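User: Let's play a game. I give you a shape written as tokens, and you guess the letters that built it. Ready? Here's round one.
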């Protein structure tokens, strides 16, 4: 490993592990050598790799890869918490997704991770008053990944979105740290009101596939929302809700549902 990468690795264990896994992946599958070198091994930091990967995915005839990469580079240079959140997201995916066996996988292959990192750039643009450019990022994320996250939404770190197909997160939604959700989750509104109209998701919450959480309601920390549920009212902390409309069916069953990813209701019925 080059000296510059060695120095970075000493202070960035997540990036160090990604580099090690990338080098092994090139040996194991030489046909992916070009992809892995361009996406990982040619970069001196996780920030550079993220900027390259986001730009590659979101570029189109309407905006070039180079321009998008410059925007991402500017964002990561201005706000170090963006890359810190990305590191936490990688670790969350690795810890919670049984299909993830390496830190390298989310960066290269998982659209849930890539969509969330693209949203983080859009949110940085939104906060900087560059709303139209933020909307462009939102549009491209939706077109590319099938994930629609409004750039004004506030999302914490340590987020795992499994499969990530048809995720919708509205403008005034708030998602706390260490939340896990599966595909087809909607954090939406209930009408045409323009003020605070979307859910507030506490820390450590697990949201099952196809669940719809609607309106300006609060989902208590470390709670579980069963797959297919429609949640229209506040959910107390550390409880499980299920059904249409969702009702409390028991306790959460563990201290950290978003980490254990246990979606069965056997202990709640």
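Assistant: Ready! My guess for every position:
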């Amino acid at each position: 490993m080059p000296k510059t990468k060695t120095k970075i690795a000493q202070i960035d264990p997540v990036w160090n592990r990604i580099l090690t896994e990338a080098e092994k992946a090139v040996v194991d599958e030489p046909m992916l050598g070009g992809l892995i070198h361009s996406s990982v091994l040619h970069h001196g930091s996780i920030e550079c790799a993220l900027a390259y990967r986001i730009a590659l995915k979101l570029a189109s005839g309407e905006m070039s890869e180079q321009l998008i990469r410059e925007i991402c580079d500017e964002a990561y240079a201005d706000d170090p918490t963006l890359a810190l959140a990305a590191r936490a997201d990688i670790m969350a995916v690795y810890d919670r997704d049984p299909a993830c066996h390496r830190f390298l996988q989310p960066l290269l292959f998982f659209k849930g991770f890539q969509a969330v990192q693209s949203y983080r750039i859009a949110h940085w643009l939104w906060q900087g008053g560059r709303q139209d450019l933020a909307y462009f990022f939102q549009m491209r994320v939706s077109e590319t990944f099938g994930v629609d996250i409004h750039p004004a939404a506030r999302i914490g770190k340590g987020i795992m979105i499994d499969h990530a197909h048809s995720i919708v997160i509205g403008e005034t939604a708030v998602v706390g740290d260490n939340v896990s959700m599966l595909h087809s989750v909607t954090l939406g509104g209930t009408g045409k009101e323009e003020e605070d109209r979307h859910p507030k998701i506490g820390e450590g919450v697990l949201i099952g596939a196809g669940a719809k959480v609607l309106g300006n309601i609060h989902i208590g920390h470390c709670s579980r929302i069963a797959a297919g549920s429609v949640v229209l009212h506040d959910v107390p902390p550390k409880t499980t809700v299920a059904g249409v409309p969702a009702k409390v069916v028991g306790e959460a069953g563990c201290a950290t549902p978003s980490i254990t990813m246990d979606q069965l209701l056997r202990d709640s019925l």
